[in-house]
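testing teh design pipeline on a random one, pls ignore if ur not involved
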């Protein structure tokens, strides 16, 4: 039985959850997290390497006999870390969880992902794309568009690139600003999309490029304020399973979206061994794709992995070898909830370095660290989203009671969390 020295890239709550799950496997001999946070430290060794510094990663991999690489965030993938490994003799055989640059374009370019969905007949909102060269056509198009109008920066914009405009004037201004560099190169191209009204949920698969395995679904709470109000964040909490995603919905999701996506990648000869995250909106029971991501979600991972019974290292080994077809996914029937503690001011400006206390009071659940660091032997805040409190329970209310109690037990100056995560599903 092969054991692995694993290098996990990233530093969020998602990576803490990955580290927690990977370290439970007998097949994990060593685990390194680059750069990690104060939580990943308890499951492996943090190494101060930036996930975008491919040359430093290469050196570390070779010096430490790493034989499995797992990429958490999208940016290294979109910048082509898989292709970097493939281009090097000593690296190309190393099991690598994460798609090629071409595959990561599903997330890296909204325009490309829309074209991909059109090519493969995958249900999504109608759209047009514009650049500064076609600004006049774009402005004319907006004038005849029904309200609201969804404008999306084509490239990666740290979750801020989607703007829903309630008036034509707002949409015109937004389009001009985006094409003028509001999100830098990411908004040199703008996608104008039909607005879909419905309820959102997320689905995750692991694919080896031939077949796929479906993981538990989740619902994310993106807005900062209770009752889904205020600006978008990276995610304030998550719940899995999602009660309204029933068998009928699953059948539609798999037949209309998952299968054609994996088949489409295969037909287009796009190497993909890793996660695909499907963001869905259910419009009167019909699933439409609103986005693809080329990685797991955060905070969705913090509720998906605690419900996954399989050994994650074994699953990754099958994924890398192309033998995922042999695997049966086993899921914990219980519900998982995650409530995120964030820094005061987030998603706007916030302060860092606040001492975190009460971690020892967390009971009946797990505190997954996101924006934390160790400073002079103390755990301090180091980001907007600080800690996700995950609990499992026989149902959503039971799990939520634990997550909320633990959310109250942890203290730091400026702490904020939403008290209504999952309430809409009860
Ligand atoms: P994204 O960054 O693509 O996840 O989009 C952020 C959020 O914008 C989504 O979670 C949705 O709430 C919303 N959104 C994106 N596209 C649409 C659409 N076509 N219709 C309605 N809402 C949308
Ligand atoms: N929670 C949404 C994301 O990870 O993109």
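output:
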């Amino acid at each position: 039985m092969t054991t692995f020295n694993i290098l996990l890239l990233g530093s969020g709550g998602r990576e803490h959850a990955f580290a927690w799950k990977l370290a439970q496997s007998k097949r994990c001999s060593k685990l390194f997290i680059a750069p990690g946070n104060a939580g990943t430290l308890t499951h492996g060794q943090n190494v101060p390497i930036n996930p975008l510094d491919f040359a430093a990663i290469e050196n570390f991999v070779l010096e430490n006999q790493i034989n499995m690489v797992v990429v958490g965030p999208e940016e290294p993938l979109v910048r082509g870390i898989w292709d970097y490994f493939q281009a090097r003799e000593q690296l190309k055989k190393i099991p690598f969880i994460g798609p090629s640059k071409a595959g990561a374009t599903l997330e890296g370019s909204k325009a490309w992902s829309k074209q991909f969905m059109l090519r493969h007949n995958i249900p999504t909102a109608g759209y047009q794309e514009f650049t500064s060269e076609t600004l006049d056509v774009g402005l004319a198009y907006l004038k005849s568009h029904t309200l609201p109008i969804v404008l999306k920066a084509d490239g990666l914009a740290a979750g801020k690139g989607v703007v829903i405009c309630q008036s034509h004037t707002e949409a015109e201004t937004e389009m001009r600003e985006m094409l003028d560099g509001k999100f830098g190169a990411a908004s040199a191209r703008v996608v104008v999309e039909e607005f879909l009204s419905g309820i959102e949920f997320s689905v995750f698969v692991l694919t080896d490029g031939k077949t796929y395995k479906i993981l538990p679904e989740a619902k994310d709470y993106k807005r900062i304020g209770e009752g889904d109000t205020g600006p978008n964040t990276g995610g304030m909490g998550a719940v899995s399973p999602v009660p309204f995603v029933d068998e009928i919905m699953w059948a539609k999701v798999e037949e209309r979206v998952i299968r054609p996506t994996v088949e489409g990648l295969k037909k287009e000869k796009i190497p993909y061994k890793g996660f695909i995250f499907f963001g869905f909106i259910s419009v009167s029971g019909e699933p439409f794709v609103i986005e693809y991501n080329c990685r797991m979600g955060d905070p969705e991972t913090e509720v998906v992995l605690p419900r996954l019974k399989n050994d994650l290292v074994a699953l990754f080994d099958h994924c890398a070898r192309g033998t995922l077809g042999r695997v049966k996914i086993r899921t914990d029937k219980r519900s998982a909830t995650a409530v995120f503690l964030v820094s005061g001011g987030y998603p706007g400006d916030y302060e860092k370095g606040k001492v975190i206390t009460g971690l020892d009071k967390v009971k009946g659940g797990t505190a997954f660290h996101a924006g934390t660091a160790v400073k002079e032997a103390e755990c301090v805040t180091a980001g907007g989203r600080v800690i996700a409190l995950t609990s499992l329970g026989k149902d959503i209310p039971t799990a939520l009671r634990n997550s909320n109690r633990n959310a109250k037990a942890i203290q730091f100056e400026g702490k904020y969390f939403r008290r209504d995560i999952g309430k809409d599903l009860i």
